[in-house]
């Protein structure tokens, strides 16, 4: 019972009774109004919707050879890009507008500030998952009705969908942690964006390339080290190697959740440290 009450207290403190939440949601809802978008943003949005519609139409028309896996990979990639794009500017933007100082002297905790910023990524994350998971399910079911396996490698369809969803959610915990922490450390949105892109590029591209270069020495070692990578784990999930897929998906999920949670905690500590420095300066 004590643990249950503690969880309820944390949820109430960070979300239901978080004084930072209404302002954060209000500013995010304003940014969703199409009338406030610059022309360049509106054009990009229209292009993305057209490409998405064409891809779904192609998948439906060519269901005999079009696997749902492309939508699952797309779900992972697009959700990562959207979450990073939404969160990198949060704290750095407040600092750039000189409004972070007001938040730090207000009767709110660093955890409440970070939680309010995280809620801005919830809608883009859910939208990207639904927009790509639903077509994947439809295409998979259409292939099954036609007497074909949902995937060429005859992977269990429900397990593949559940694993892809788990990988996507866990990967975005880390992405959110990176974006918020970089935003907490940088004074401008441009520097926070550069730092966020640099960290994610190093994690998912540079390290993966360096590890892959060790393949002539030991392929098993490379496979083990790359198990953290969400796209490698997704590839294992959609292959016939069920045993390695389970290990890879499990390790990747735990890695991303642990590192992401650590970075979010570090973001809270950075805000509290900044608050104490401001207090000493005013004293």
Give me the secondary-structure topology.
Layout: H1 2-16, H2 21-31, H3 39-61, H4 69-87, H5 90-96, H6 100-105, H7 110-119, H8 122-145, H9 157-185, H10 189-212, H11 219-225, H12 230-237, H13 242-282
Helix pairs in contact: 2-7, 4-8, 4-9, 5-9, 7-13, 8-9, 9-10, 9-12, 9-13, 12-13
Give a quick account of the main beta sheet: strands, pairing sense, barrel closure.
Answer: none
Q: How many separate domains make up the residues?
A: 1
Determine the oligomeric state from the structure.
single chain
Kindly, what is the distance between the CA atoms of the first and last residues, rounded to a whole number of angstroms? 43 Å
Question: Spans with pLDDT under 50 lasting ≥5 residues?
Answer: 279-283
Rg to the nearest angstrom? Answer: 21 Å
The tally of beta strands, per DSSP, is 0
Beta content? under 5%
Spell out the helices and strands N to C.
Answer: HHHHHHHHHHHHH
- Helicity, in percent? over 70%
Mean pLDDT: 83
Structural class: mainly alpha
The 3D shape can be described as globular
Question: Helical element count?
Answer: 13
Give a structural overview.
The chain is mostly helical. It has 13 helices and no strands. It starts with a helix and ends with a helix. Residues 279-283 have low confidence and may be disordered. Helices cover 79% and strands 0% of the residues. It has one domain.
Task: Summarize this entry quickly.
By secondary structure, the protein is mainly α.
